[in-house]
Amino acid sequence: MKILVTGGAGYIGSILVPMLLKEGHEVTVLDNLLFSQNSLLDCCCYESFDFIHGDSRDEAILAPLLKKAEVIIPLASLVGMPICSKDKIAAETTNQGAVELICKLASKDQKIISQPRIVVMVLEKRASFARKKRRSTLFLFMGHQRLTPREPF
């Protein structure tokens, strides 16, 4: 399957993207590397991996990537009170606006997978992660909701 992951170099994406590649999926990650992270360097050895340095709020970058994807996983977000308080506009346009843009541009044939489903997938594969981070995982699960009536992945 051809999968687009926005914010794929972040915490959840750095666990999810390698799992998807190992399962044989073609994965494109769109990330602005706000924190200069290098969490996906190991993924570069896969021919089925593509990394685009850019912002998920930029329609000119996002639209062509969406056309190639069968599944879209919007993970791009600013997380935590300090950064959200520091730049409220960026927090709102990234955490909500970028997902709304994806929903607007995606076709009815594409699947959009929201963060609660991703958290469940990661936890199913990483039981030890669930035991260590139960509290923060519960927050992630309860803090997001499905934005479209599309079927889960």
In words, what does this structure look like?
By secondary structure, the chain is α/β, with parallel strands linked by helices. It is 48% helix and 14% strand. It has a five-stranded parallel beta sheet with strand order 3-2-1-4-5, sandwiched between helices. The model is unreliable at 133-153 (pLDDT under 50).
Number of helices: 7
N- to C-terminal separation? Answer: 11 Å
Give the DSSP E fraction (strand runs of 2 or more residues). 5-15%
User: What coarse outline follows from CA principal-axis ratios?
Assistant: globular
Low-confidence spans: 133-153
Largest sheet: 5 strands, parallel
Helix content class: 40-55%
Furnish the topology, listing elements before pairings:
Blueprint: E1 2-6, H1 11-22, E2 26-31, E3 49-53, H2 59-68, E4 71-74, H3 81-86, H4 88-105, E5 111-112, H5 115-125, H6 127-132, H7 134-143
Parallel strand pairs: 1-2, 1-4, 2-3, 4-5
Helix pairs in contact: 5-7
Question: What features would you highlight for this structure?
Answer:
five-stranded parallel sheet; disordered C terminus; 7 helices
